[in-house]
Every structure is written in structure tokens, then in C-alpha cells.
């Protein structure tokens, strides 16, 4: 009986080790792997709460993770760089966008009073499993924005600024945005929901 258990255990171990090794390999093929970038188109900037295509399907594919009922997009146009566009929220069973960009990063160089133009930076904007990422590089500054869900109710944006010069930079950093005012193709929010 003991010999049978030993053989059974060894056989189970022999079968499960490749599975465990495969799981470790999949984990090691991390989200940083370029092969997994932009597998799903996550770009777009909503213009109205009900932003649907001609067939009444959602126009965009927001990034939603960890069972959240809200999601974000990557900017499709340079005027929206520095923001994760949206968000989209699930209102009962239907999706609604509440902003074109709820929060957009603005950076002003205090020494020159010049606003940094994200469109002039060397940029890399992409989605990967578990994150939306934006990199911007100027000769003097590098910025990386990452959006990750940390729970089913919270999306966290981390912002890294790297001074690429040998002297200190004095920067003013601001986040700003606003809600959408258009409900659908025909009505404003006020017209569609007068008591809201």
C-alpha cells in the first residue's frame, strides 16, 4: 500500500511539475513583454455619455480590471495626452461615459513659464495586460503615467517624473478635467435629464 502511494505521489508530482513550470513561465512572461502590447484597441476619447456606433454598440473598449464597474481608455489624439480618457461606468447593465478626460496632467516650467506640450515629446502609449501606460520624453524630462486597478473600486494612476539634467527643475504640476455635457447624438445632459 505504501509503495502504491509513493508511486501515485511521484506520478502526480511528475504530471504537475510541468503544469507548475508552465504557470511560472506564464508569470515570467510578464506584462512588460512587448508581444502583449495593444492586443485590444483601448484608444478613444468619448464625446458624449452614450457614445455608441451605428449599431448601438459601445464605440470603445475601455480597460476594466479586477471586477470593477468602471474603465478607462488611452488617448487617441495628442491633445488628450497626459490623460486616461473616460471614465466609462456601468450604470445597471448599460455603459455610460462621464467625461472625455476626467483628469489630465499639465506641467509648467516655473523658470520659463512655458507649458510642456505632450505632443512635442517622444511618446510611447500602449495598453498591456493589467495596465494602461504613457511614456513621454523631452531632452530635459521624462514622464511615465501608468493606470492599474488595485481593487474593484479603485484605479490608481502612478506618475513618475525624471529630471534628465544635472540641475534642479522647478515645475508646477496640475490635474484638471470636466464632465461631459452631451448625453447622446441628439440631446444634452440637461435636456435628457432635466431634474438631474
Describe the structure in your own words.
Helices cover 16% and strands 35% of the residues. A 4-stranded antiparallel sheet has the order 6-7-8-9, with no helix packed on it. It has a 3-stranded antiparallel sheet with strand order 1-2-3, with no helix packed on it. About 3% of the residues have low confidence. This is Glucosidase YgjK N-terminal domain-containing protein. Keywords: Signal. It comes from Thalassotalea loyana. It holds the Pfam family YgjK_N.
Determine the strand fraction and express it as a percent band.
Answer: 35-45%
Put simply, the count of helices is 2
The mean pLDDT is: 87
Number of strands: 10
- What does the main sheet amount to? 4 strands, antiparallel
Ends: how far apart? 74 Å
CA-based gyration radius: 23 Å
Low-confidence stretches: 8-13
Q: Roughly what percent helix?
A: 10-25%
Overall, the morphology is: globular
Short description:
It holds the Pfam family YgjK_N. The chain has helices at residues 2-28, 189-192; strands at residues 70-73, 85-91, 94-97, 99-109, 114-115, 122-128, 131-137, 141-149, 155-163, 171-179.
From the structure above, extract its key features.
196 residues; alpha+beta; 35% strand; globular
Question: Any chance you could write out the topology, listing elements then pairs?
Answer:
Blueprint: H1 2-28, E1 70-73, E2 85-91, E3 94-97, E4 99-109, E5 114-115, E6 122-128, E7 131-137, E8 141-149, E9 155-163, E10 171-179, H2 189-192
Antiparallel strand pairs: 1-2, 2-3, 4-5, 4-10, 6-7, 7-8, 8-9
Amino acid at each position: 500500500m505504501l509503495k502504491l502511494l509513493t508511486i501515485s505521489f511521484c506520478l502526480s508530482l511528475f504530471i504537475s511539475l510541468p503544469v507548475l513550470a508552465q504557470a511560472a513561465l506564464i508569470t515570467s512572461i510578464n506584462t512588460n513583454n512587448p508581444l502583449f502590447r495593444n492586443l485590444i484597441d483601448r484608444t478613444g476619447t468619448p464625446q458624449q455619455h452614450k457614445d455608441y456606433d451605428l449599431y448601438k454598440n459601445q464605440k470603445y473598449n475601455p480597460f476594466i480590471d479586477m471586477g470593477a464597474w468602471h474603465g478607462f481608455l488611452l488617448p487617441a489624439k495628442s491633445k488628450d495626452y497626459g490623460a486616461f480618457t473616460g471614465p466609462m461606468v456601468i450604470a445597471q447593465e448599460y455603459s455610460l461615459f462621464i467625461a472625455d478626460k476626467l483628469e489630465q496632467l499639465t506641467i509648467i516650467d516655473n523658470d520659463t513659464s512655458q507649458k510642456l506640450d505632450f505632443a512635442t515629446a517622444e511618446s510611447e502609449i500602449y495598453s498591456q495586460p493589467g495596465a494602461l501606460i504613457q511614456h513621454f520624453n523631452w531632452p530635459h524630462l521624462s514622464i511615465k503615467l501608468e493606470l492599474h486597478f488595485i481593487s474593484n473600486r479603485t484605479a490608481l494612476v502612478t506618475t513618475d517624473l525624471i529630471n534628465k539634467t544635472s540641475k534642479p527643475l522647478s515645475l508646477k504640476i496640475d490635474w484638471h478635467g470636466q464632465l461631459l455635457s452631451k448625453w447622446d447624438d441628439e440631446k444634452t445632459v440637461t435636456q435628457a435629464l432635466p431634474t438631474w
